[in-house]
Amino acid sequence: MKKVEVSLENRSYDILIDENLILKFPVYLEGLLNRKFLAIVTDTNVENLHLSRLLTTLKNAGIETKVLSIKAGESSKSWETLQATVDWMLDNKIERNDLVVAFGGGVVGDLVGFAAAIMRRGIQFIQCPTSLLAQVDSSVGGKTGINTSHGKNLVGAFYQPSLVISDISTLKTLEERDFLAGYGEVAKYGLLGDYEFYCWLEENAENIRNRDIHALIKAVAHSCEMKSAIVIADEKEQGERALLNLGHTFCHALEAATGYSERMLHGEGVAIGSVLAFDLSAKMGLTSQEDPTRIKKHFEDMGMMNSINNISGTLPNADKLVELMFQDKKVVDGKLNLILAKGIGKAFIARDVDPNLIKDVINNSLAI
Length: 368
Ligand SMILES: NC(=O)c1ccc[n+]([C@@H]2O[C@H](COP(=O)([O-])OP(=O)(O)OC[C@H]3O[C@@H](n4cnc5c(N)ncnc54)[C@H](O)[C@@H]3O)[C@@H](O)[C@H]2O)c1
Ligand SMILES: [Zn+2]
Hints:
- There is one protein chain.
- The protein folds into 2 domains: 2-172, Rossmann fold; 176-367, Dehydroquinate synthase-like, alpha domain (Up-down Bundle), CATH 1.20.1090.
- The protein has helices at 25-28, 44-60, 79-91, 106-118, 132-138, 176-193, 195-203, 205-209, 213-233, 248-257, 266-283, 290-301, 318-325, 355-367, and strands at residues 2-6, 13-18, 37-43, 64-70, 99-104, 124-129, 143-148, 151-158, 163-167, 338-341, 347-350.
- Strand 10 and strand 11 form a beta hairpin.
- The mean pLDDT is 96.
- It is an alpha/beta fold and 368 residues long.
- It binds nicotinamide-adenine-dinucleotide and zinc ion (ZN).
């Protein structure tokens, strides 16, 4: 089993990564449970596919459970579902010292983490992420929250879990598109800060696509190590944590342009956005022209989108997309700060980037 430590003083926790962890769940609860009781929140898909194994394991260990299953999908990151979740916890008399498990993808993790943060002013929670995106990204680092009519993730809290249990075996049942979208974030780690890891991903593209357990354990563990190191250095995103947003300002504009719909999933937008960030870096002479070409090829090998024109349906033009980029919450004093790179694995925060150069790379991507 791989163990990654997130050292944040009294908010420190471990991330456990291996196959079949659900079947050994009670072992890892030692020292965390004040009574033999667990509240579990999941979504309807994960409930159907994986919940019974978890419940059986807990029952055999004499641990009583209460389960809430929310509707699968992004629409559950809402005020309504947050209220329903907190009310459910209160109805079921979840106490200040009880533990709640977020058992699902990033939606369940973000929602339950936020509910735990405000429930009785904070109860402990465990992330048990079941999607690749959640295992490498959303379950680590303590960002929790919901969406509102004003935008995504605008209401929430920094609230760290007490433990993360990443059972790699659960990834076998993910839809191909969700799996590959999660991979967009995995590749991002190599691209932003670890050239060797990126080369390993290229060499293991086929194994990863085939969901080879050992390749996935390494990919998830290494991603978590990188995210953990960045979060330890900058928990509240005052500086370096912004590097994790490689490709994201482009992605957020494309998500807005496609109405946060099935036309483009978040991780797909991260892959396209990362290519654009390298295109722009090459255009500015920061990195070689071969880098964006190489990255496009890798995403193609993985069977993923790698340019804007892979997105189905019509899209706004480059002017409008740049305008959308300027609505990103990372814009400060009207200046667009972007994550660019001086080579694969060497991302940095570029301040006040010229919008005309951005338009050029978007136009090229639209034309490919
Ligand atoms: N908190 C953070 O730091 C952070 C970082 C990145 C993303 N996020 C958030 O994460 C969310 C996206 O996460 P996601 O992609 O996991 O979305 P998700 O939770 O909606 O999961 C995607 C789909 O996969 C299904 N699913 C989950 N596990 C499965 C499994 N093992 N087998 C089969 N189906 C399974 C879900 O039911 C859903 O239909 C977004 O809301 C995003 O804002 C948060
Ligand atoms: Zn992301």
